[in-house]
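Consider the tokenized backbone below.
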């Protein structure tokens, strides 16, 4: 239920000052700049509508951890009766400009931090309403207005006398009747004409501010978390979507049972940071910590995995209807359940990191699908060490590569998460058939021609599979490439035949594109530095640098699924056709689809 009231601005700002009106902790920081503050103050002085604000009644027990609006000084033990969902920027600006006796910390037009006092130019304010914005004056922290590149003092407002002489009324005292009267008397003493001017100013400006009413929608305390989140996003004029993690942070921090048990707030961001730092520290595939806590594996990924395990368990116990990790499931995730499941999921993601390393996927930029890690971690958390048996590991590996090479996680993923968790668990336990991600995944040979950038999961997958199947670097030839040397050697995907050379021969126009994954392979930086011109011109120098005979170096080339003869003869078309066939076989083997796809391809050839 929701109700609409008109509340006097003065009363609303008094509630801000007392702590009766606070913010749910998921609200972002106040950030209005000087010009916008001047504009909202002008709106109030004209008694123009400034828009509805929306609040949530707490019923005396806030469902979220609350915090005061910026500038309000309230005891930490203060419990709000209302939480502000929409209107933070407007009310904070008005509170700081009209209700507190200190400068407002804001920013100028260039986003530089500044401190400002706000005044009304009396003479301009009693003129045309059209000019009201110009009548609201922003004054520096030292209360001195300057001109001529700050060399000349125009007005010194450090005293009441200076303010009265300049005809600039300090808005910080507008709601303090005693101070307004004292200021009026000082102002009227300056000039006999000020009596009439003040009367008009009081009628046209001050009375508007004192009587200004704010329309307020109040949501009942019984409003669901999901509804609060949805409402907030619809009314949030800042245009920044509300993150479920932020909402849960505020919800968990406001959990009364946890506070009574521990004497402190639950710090979800700190818990997530510890998990992420541990995971990314061990396995860089989860993200670069220097790029931010949510680079790579995100808090949302982790929460979704927790929700999948929770809903799976509830379904097994007969208290839930299905496995899910939708937004509502996350918002309804109790703190007690999160505390119980988070360590299991942290361990599960650690297992996922080790699994990816076995697949030779070790860097975040080379991860085909981050989203596919969510159901994989959930399955590990559900099955535990059952995933470590030989048969289970083979099943998981096949499922993973079908997802990558079949590009099954490229669209909407939540429904696939659900199916994969249930079907993969049942398959591993020999209680069900292979998951749809396995049975529905296909890789057609012509897809190789269009895999040209890292934007494609299959492109990254083939790169990893080449390393996994034993590719030896063309400079460091002692052993096959492995995850532990990728960074040390500067391994990346490198062009074999130069694109320019291929284009000049117009080979790419005949169905052998030069920028395809077929014409690329993982090599170290040292090897790449020698790739000048077509292969026939650089292979012998690479062999000599590695101190290998030509035939031995040909064996090294072959580990990349390349026929060295076609490189030495610079036969790009033959090279492309031969390698494409070998890459197809590698892909089919990883997906466990060799027979099915080979038959489909043969049928097409017959037709």
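A designed sequence for it:
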């Amino acid at each position: 239920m929701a109700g609409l009231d008109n509340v006097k601005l003065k009363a609303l700002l008094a509630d801000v000052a007392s702590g009766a009106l606070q913010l749910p902790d998921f609200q972002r920081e106040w950030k209005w700049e000087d010009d916008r503050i001047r504009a909202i103050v002008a709106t109030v002085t004209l008694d123009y509508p400034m828009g509805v604000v929306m609040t949530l009644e707490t019923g005396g027990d806030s469902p979220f951890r609350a915090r005061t609006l910026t500038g309000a000084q309230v005891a930490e033990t203060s419990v709000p009766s209302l939480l502000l969902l929409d209107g933070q920027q407007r009310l904070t600006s008005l509170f700081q400009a009209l209700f507190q006796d200190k400068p407002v910390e804001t920013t100028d037009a260039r986003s530089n931090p500044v401190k400002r006092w706000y005044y009304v130019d009396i003479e301009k304010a009693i003129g045309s309403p059209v000019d009201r914005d110009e009548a609201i004056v922003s004054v520096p922290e030292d209360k001195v207005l300057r001109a001529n590149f700050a060399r000349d003092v125009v007005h010194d407002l450090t005293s009441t006398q200076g303010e009265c002489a300049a005809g600039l009324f300090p808005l910080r005292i507008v709601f303090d009747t005693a101070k307004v009267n004292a200021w009026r008397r000082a102002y009227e003493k300056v000039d006999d004409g000020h009596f009439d001017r003040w009367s008009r100013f009081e009628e046209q400006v001050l009375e508007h501010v004192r009587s200004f009413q704010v329309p307020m929608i109040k949501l009942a305390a019984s409003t669901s978390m999901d509804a609060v989140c949805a409402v907030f996003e619809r009314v949030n004029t800042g245009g920044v979507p509300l993150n479920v993690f932020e909402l849960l942070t505020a919800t968990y921090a406001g959990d009364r049972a946890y506070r009574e048990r521990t004497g402190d707030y639950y710090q979800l961001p700190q818990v997530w940071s510890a998990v992420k730092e541990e995971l990314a520290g061990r396995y860089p595939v989860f993200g670069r910590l220097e790029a931010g806590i949510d680079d790579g594996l995100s808090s949302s990924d982790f929460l979704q995995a927790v929700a999948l395990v929770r809903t799976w368990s509830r379904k097994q116990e007969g208290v839930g209807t299905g496995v899910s990790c939708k937004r509502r499931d996350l918002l309804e995730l109790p703190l007690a359940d999160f505390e119980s499941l988070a360590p299991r999921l942290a361990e599960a993601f650690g297992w996922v990191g080790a699994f990816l390393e076995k697949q030779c996927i070790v860097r975040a930029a080379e991860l085909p699908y981050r989203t596919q890690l969510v159901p994989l971690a959930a399955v590990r958390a559900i099955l535990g060490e059952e995933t470590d048996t030989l048969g289970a590991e083979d099943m998981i590996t096949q499922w993973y590569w079908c997802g990558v090479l079949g590009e099954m996680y490229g669209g909407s993923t939540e429904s696939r998460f659900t199916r994969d968790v249930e079907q993969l668990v049942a398959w591993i336990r020999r209680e069900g058939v292979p998951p749809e991600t396995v049975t529905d995944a296909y890789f057609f040979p012509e897809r190789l021609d269009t895999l040209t950038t890292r934007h494609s999961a299959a492109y990254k997958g083939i790169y990893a599979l080449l390393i996994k199947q034993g590719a030896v670097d063309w400079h460091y030839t002692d052993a096959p490439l492995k995850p532990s040397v990728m960074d040390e050697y500067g391994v990346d995907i490198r062009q074999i035949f130069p694109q320019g050379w291929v284009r000049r021969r117009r080979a790419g126009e005949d169905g052998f594109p030069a920028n395809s994954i077929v014409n690329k392979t993982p090599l170290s930086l040292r090897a790449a530095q020698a790739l000048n011109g077509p292969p026939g011109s650089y292979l012998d120098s690479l062999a000599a640098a590695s101190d290998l005979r030509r035939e031995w170096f040909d064996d090294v080339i072959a580990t990349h699924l390349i026929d060295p003869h076609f490189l030495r003869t610079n036969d790009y078309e033959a090279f492309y056709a031969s390698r494409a066939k070998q890459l197809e076989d590698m892909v089919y083997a990883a997906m466990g689809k060799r027979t099915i796809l080979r038959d489909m391809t043969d049928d097409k050839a017959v037709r």
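The radius of gyration is 34 Å.
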